[in-house]
Amino acid sequence: MTTPAAMVGGPGRQGGEPALVLDGVVAGYGGGDVLRDVSFVVPEGSITCVVGPNGAGKSTVMRVISGLLRPRLGAVTLRGEKLVGKSPRQILQMGVVQVPQNHSLFKDMTVRENIDLGGYLISDRGAVTRRIDAVYDLFPQVKEWAGMKAGALSGGQQRLVEFARALMLDPVLILLDEPSMGLSPMVLKSVFDAARQMNAGGATVLLVEQNARAGLKLAHHGVVMENGTVRLVGSGREVLEHPEIGELYLGGAVKRQ
Hints:
The protein is of the alpha/beta class. It has helices spanning 4-7, 58-66, 88-93, 111-117, 125-138, 140-144, 155-166, 185-200, 212-218, 236-241, 243-250; strands at residues 18-29, 32-43, 47-51, 73-78, 81-82, 96-99, 173-177, 204-208, 221-226, 229-235.
């Protein structure tokens, strides 16, 4: 377990540079600060999970990273390149793709059409076709639904299609905002398995998850937020087993086996 400041500039899980660094971020809405001096690292090649109670600032962090909210102070860098001041489209072009909390598929369009839209920044149609084939290789079940209307799918199935669409740009960093929202435990497992697949395929994943226990079990690294600040960082297991954090957010700490 370590302090937030000690994580800034630290090495990634594979021993390289961090994929994403937030350093001293202050941001909010209407003149009020929601985030206060937020600093943490998302190591290259990792799954990092941000947890905390409602109102902790988790979704605001996602908005800052994706360019939807400009911080008042602080820096956000992707592989050393500054994100602050860039538009959401520019950040998307740099390889940061977000799967939002609410379902975002066009329900009257087919699954294939929705996935195809994920590659709208790619001008080469041959490249789009190759990306779709690669996505289908990773998610064969999505290929089976290709001709179905997206609105006919269950919530969990729609989430998998959203993951597939996010991969169309071959992202450097995937932001998952509350992917378990409204899903049953069985469906949640398939969605988290898909997140592991995306990570194994080379994408760094930053996950904000209200189901803290499930998210931290999935993650290599955990970040605990409270009242707009980073309270604790460590491995997913360290955060799960931390007694104080367990009592506050997890209904009791997980005991080491």
